[in-house]
Amino acid sequence: MSHKSFLLQYASDVTAEVVGKPSSIFFEAVLQDAGVNPSKSVMVGDDIVSDIGGAQACGMTGVLVRTGKFRPKDENHKDVKPDAIFDNLAQFVDALLPTIH
User: Which SUPFAM superfamilies match (predicted)?
Assistant: First the structure.
């Protein structure tokens, strides 16, 4: 536990639950807050395990972009297979817009 986490817990008298990607708790909380069904949601990210794998484990579509953390080997990850791959977010949006009615 980090020093800041300890101080926060001590000051609030509450045990902290630290969550983040690829935790299903993280994705489920975001989906619940947004009132969105996972099967109707898309996660666009550059991290094959945390973004794409985490989203797919919750039933979301996972779209990998070749920016930021992306590495060419990610396209052939042994466990996580993106639903689609785009060079960047703009290319994904350009592909998505014509499908919106």
Answer: HAD-like
